[in-house]
Input
Amino acid sequence: MNAVTVHNLVKTYSSKKEKVTAMQDVSFTVKQGELFGLIGPDGAGKTSLFRILTTLLLADSGTASVDGFDVVKQYQDIRNRVGYMPGKFSLYQDMTVEENLEFFASIFNTSIEANYDLVKDIYVQIAPFKNRRAGKLSGGMKQKLALCCALIHKPSVLFLDEPTTGVDAVSRKEFWEMLKGLKQQGITILVSTPYMDEAAMCDRVALMQLGKIMSIDTPPNIISRFGEKLWAVRSANMYRLLTDLKKYSNTESCNSFGEYHHLVLKNDDTDAVLRYLGEQNHTAVELKPAQPNIEDCFMQLMNNN
Amino acid sequence: MKQFIIFVKKEFRHIFRDRKSLLIIIMMPIVQIILFGFALTNEIKNSNIAVLDNAKDEASRAIIQRLDASRYFNVTRYLHASQDIEAAFKSGTVRLVVVFQPDFRESLMHSGKAQVQLIADASDPNTATTVTNYAGNIISDYQKEMSPQVQPPYSIRPEIRMLYNPQLKGAYNFVPGVMAMILILISAMMTSVAIVREKEINTMEVLLVSPLKPLLFILSKAIPYVFLSLVNVSTILLVSVTLLEVPINGSLLLLMGESFLFILTSVSLGLMISNLTKTQQEAQMFSLMTLMLPTLLLGGFMFPIESMPLPLQIISNIVPSKWFFLIVKDVMIKGLGFSAVWKESLVLVGMTLFLLAVSFKKFKTRLA
Output
């Protein structure tokens, strides 16, 4: 059985001035026990999708079900069994770590003791601060506490909306390790993130852009479908290099990627590129083959649409 | 049940950890009662007056002494010429000038008529009327004592008795008024702010995606403020009885019961406001505009409703404080029983049920 089924969902927000389409005809399924990632920049429609699945918003059209329950008609059943961690921090800042956890356990008619083994690995990391008020925790600690609170009732499906946004790199890595641990306990996890590099941690990902899903597959399959040769280029003046490469007649696409620019050519005549860059007075030019990653695929899909 | 207990516990934590707000809630009634009781009073006490005594005889001095001895007036200035009168008023230090004609006693004794002029500063008309009345009464008292044996052949003597408040104390009026104002502010505003805060800090999102039922949520939010409001009623009554010497003439139990009913009405109003607003600030502004102003202006305790234009009189009927004000005056000051206030109580019950029904119907189980 599928843990989550989404069929032709459409969601628009209308104000007096304009109508904004948050999701256009989105369909996908998530299998039980899967770690499923929704990858896309801000405004891609990730939060709207999460809110529809957690029964907080109604879609304009289309259907969706979580754990076999319809998100509109059987919303109370879904609310009783899923875990949800919103994108914005949403715990009580004036209550301590322990009080927050105890409160959310009781709201779900359970206790910390009953499900302690589930949150143990995460909770031990924040246990030294259990008498500290939640508002006084660091960003990473807050997210760990929020995850504990979303987990304490042993949900069947866990929805995490951008859990790693605003968290430092080390905490982000730790967070994904925790999610892998939870997956082993059989919990289905839907997680959204704007960080492309986190896609590799998921079983399957959906790449979203402007309310549409551009591609759904396992990360290796998405990368294998890139299908073009990719070059990494750098020189002394990176900014001028980017504009010059974009002007170059033989360039298919060129994007900035940290210390290199990723370049796709119409024909793979790299000597001609080097000659062209020489004519443009670029120094210390380096050009080498590169392995495409999810972000390259995302850019390619975006340009094709 | 466990859900409910922990939720109420959480609400009390929010309240007790926000020390400043708690202090305001606890101290506001005491400060208001004391302010209204001693500073913002509309009674005339110890008004400064000036005297222009052109007679300087036995009779005029006796009257001046009586004016000075009364608790309404202090004679602070003695003027010497009629030109000084205007200057005295312009200095702003006197409210009344008493002018005696020359040979005051002479003409009183011989022709049976003498004139005293009372000149008041009528830029504040209410005060001017009151001080001239008081001064006039003191002078006529003196006259009666001077000639007790002289009885006019026909005389109508109005005998005035001020029922329930023989000393005409303002406190008898404002204690019920402050009670109505404090209760509606604390119960309605704080409840609405407490609910809206959950929306503002996003916890509402998490609470909605949980087995928690809306009814339980609303009840748990209301209970701490019902409790705090009952504490406030007790402090207000305690301060009024001990400091302001306003007695509780009726049944204390009935008074507390009626206060409880009014608290429920206010909490339901708060629920309604929380449905209409999105941020704490909005809820606060909304509460102040729709609760505090009508309570002050149309509640009947600052301005008598009977003397308002008809449209305002009709509008005042939907102000809950008006009904509570009537109830408290009847029970606390007049000492009447439930049979005297059942109609007003019924109006409050009706308002409460209506507001609760609308609030539950309008309670959003989703975000938008």
